[in-house]
TrEMBL record:
This is Flagellar biosynthesis protein FlhF. Residues 218-365 form the AAA+ ATPase domain. The lineage of its organism: Bacteria, Bacillati, Bacillota, Clostridia, Eubacteriales. Belongs to the GTP-binding SRP family. It is found in: Cell membrane. Residues 107-130 are annotated as: Disordered. The gene is flhF. GO terms for biological process: bacterial-type flagellum organization; protein transport; SRP-dependent cotranslational protein targeting to membrane. PANTHER family: FLAGELLAR BIOSYNTHESIS PROTEIN FLHF, SIGNAL RECOGNITION PARTICLE RECEPTOR SUBUNIT ALPHA. It comes from Pelotomaculum isophthalicicum JI. It comes from the Bacteria.
Length: 421
C-alpha cells in the first residue's frame, strides 16, 4: 500500500496531486486544517493536510490462446450471454498493452478501454470477480469523496462557504440570503481581503438587528415570563442583585404564586440575602395592590410560574395578571438558547398573546450556536435585553446590544478558515 501526505491550500489542489501521483484508485483517508510554518503562519490562512492511500492490487496476467476479438465474439454469441451482463476488468497483458476484460456467463472477452464508464458491473466468479469488485469499489469510494469535497468547497467560492458557515450557526436560510446579498459586490472590489468580507457580514447582522432597538421609555415594573425550566427566577435574581448592589436602587420582588411549589422559598432566599422585601400574590387584584404599596421603589421585579406555549388556558391566566398592572411594564420573555429553533419560534409566537416586549436568552454556556437569537429578533421585532451564560449571580448576565449579539454570533469563527475552506 502506498501512502502519501500533501499540504495544500484547498481540496481541489490535493485531489489533482493525488490523481497525478497515485492514480484514480487512491482513497483520501484524512484531511484537516494546519497552520502555516513559521511566525508568519499565525497571520496566514490555514493550510489543508490531506493523506491519501493506494491499495496496490496484484497484477493479473492471462495467456489468451485466441485473439481478444475472437474472445469477445465468442462471449457475445453465447446462448447464456443475454441473461448475464458483462463485467469490466482493467487488465494488463504481456505484449498487448492495457485492455478491458469482460466476464459473461463465465467466459472472458477483451477490448481496448474506449469508454469503460459505459460498462455495467456484475458479479464475477472466483478471484477475477473479486478483483473486479475491489477495483470498482475503490474507484467508487474515491469518486464519492471527490464529489463530496467538490460539493463542500464549490471551488473555494467564498459566498458558498459563508452560506454554509451561517447555516451551521443555525441562522435561518432566508436571513442568510439577506446577509450575503451584497457579498459578491464586496468581493469584486479590488484589494478586498478576507477580513473585509467578514466585517461586511457583521455589519449586515448589526443592521438587521438595529430596527428592534428603538429607544423606549424606561419602566419600573419588570415581569419575567416563559416556559418551564428556562431559568426565570435565577435571571430575576441576577438583575435584582445588579440593581440593588451595583446601582443602589430600591427594589421589591413579587411572586405570582398559583400552583408552582418551591419557587417562593427560592425567591425568599434571594430577598433575605439582598435585604429587600418579597411579596406573594394569588390573584390579579392582589398584584395591583402590592404594586401600589411599593410605589416608592425604583423597580419591582415580578416572577411568574412557567407556562407551556401549548396551553392557552395558562397563557390567558397569566395575561389576566399582567393586565392588572396599572402602569407601563417590560414583559421579558425568557428563553433557553438550547431549545430547538423551531420550538423557539413556536414559543415566541404563542407568548405574543400576552404582548411580551423584550427577550432574555439563557444557557448560552450550554450551546455553541447562536443563530436563533438573530432569527427571533428578525421574525418578531423584539429586542434581546439580556444574555445569561451561567448560574453565577450577578456576574453571568450582560446587557445585549446589536454589536454584542453580532460578536456572539461569530464567536469561534475564523474568517480566514471560512474563506479558505
Amino acid at each position: 500500500m502506498k501512502i502519501k501526505r500533501y499540504v495544500v491550500r484547498e481540496m481541489q489542489e490535493a485531489i489533482r496531486l493525488i490523481k497525478q501521483d497515485l492514480g484514480p484508485d487512491a482513497v483520501i483517508v484524512s484531511s484537516y486544517k494546519v497552520p502555516a510554518k513559521g511566525i508568519a503562519g499565525f497571520f496566514m490562512p490555514r493550510l489543508l493536510e490531506v493523506t491519501a492511500a493506494l491499495d496496490e492490487p496484484h497484477e493479473i496476467n492471462f495467456r489468451l490462446k485466441r485473439a481478444p476479438v475472437q474472445l469477445a465474439a465468442t462471449a457475445g454469441n453465447s446462448a447464456n450471454s443475454q441473461s448475464s451482463p458483462a463485467v469490466a476488468l482493467p487488465l494488463k497483458q504481456q505484449g498487448h498493452g492495457e485492455r478491458t476484460l469482460y466476464l459473461t456467463s463465465g467466459r472472458y472477452g477483451a477490448r481496448r478501454p474506449d469508454n469503460p464508464a459505459d460498462s455495467q458491473l456484475a458479479e464475477g466468479p472466483g478471484p477475477v470477480g473479486r478483483e473486479v469488485r475491489q477495483g470498482v469499489e475503490r474507484r467508487s469510494l474515491f469518486e464519492m469523496i471527490v464529489n463530496k469535497e467538490m460539493e463542500a468547497g464549490q471551488g473555494g467560492d467564498p459566498v458558498f462557504n459563508w452560506r454554509r458557515a451561517l447555516i451551521k450557526m443555525d441562522v435561518d436560510e432566508n436571513i442568510v440570503e439577506r446577509l450575503l446579498s451584497d457579498l459578491n459586490s464586496e468581493l469584486s472590489q479590488s484589494g478586498s481581503e478576507f477580513e473585509n468580507v467578514y466585517l461586511n457580514i457583521k455589519r449586515q447582522v448589526i443592521r438587521l438587528l438595529e430596527p428592534a432597538y428603538i429607544p423606549t421609555e424606561k419602566t419600573r415594573v419588570l415581569t419575567f415570563v416563559g416556559p418551564t425550566g428556562v431559568g426565570k427566577t435565577t435571571t430575576l435574581a441576577k438583575l435584582a442583585t445588579k440593581l440593588s448592589l451595583n446601582e443602589n436602587k430600591k427594589i421589591a420582588l413579587v411572586a405570582i404564586q398559583t400552583y408552582r411549589l418551591g419557587a417562593m422559598e427560592q425567591l425568599q432566599a434571594y430577598g433575605d440575602f439582598l435585604g429587600i422585601p418579597v411579596e406573594v400574590v394569588m390573584t390579579p387584584a392582589e398584584l395591583a395592590r402590592v404594586l401600589e404599596n411599593h410605589s416608592d421603589k425604583d423597580f419591582v421585579l415580578v416572577d411568574t410560574a412557567g407556562r407551556s406555549a401549548r396551553n392557552n388556558g395558562q397563557l390567558l391566566e397569566l395575561k389576566s395578571f399582567l393586565d392588572a398592572v396599572g402602569e407601563p411594564q417590560d414583559i421579558f420573555l425568557v428563553l433557553s438558547l438550547t431549545t430547538k429553533n423551531r420550538d423557539l419560534n413556536k414559543i415566541a409566537f404563542e407568548f405574543q398573546k400576552i404582548k411580551c416586549s423584550k427577550i432574555i436568552f439563557t444557557k448560552l454556556d450550554e450551546t455553541e450556536t447562536y443563530g436563533s437569537i438573530l432569527n427571533l429578533v428578525s421574525a418578531y421585532g423584539m429586542p434581546v435585553a439580556y444574555l445569561a451564560d451561567g448560574q453565577g449571580i450577578p456576574d453571568c448576565i450582560s446587557e445585549a446590544k446589536p454589536r454584542s449579539i453580532a460578536e456572539l454570533l461569530f464567536r469561534g469563527v475564523d474568517p480566514d478558515e471560512v474563506m479558505a475552506t
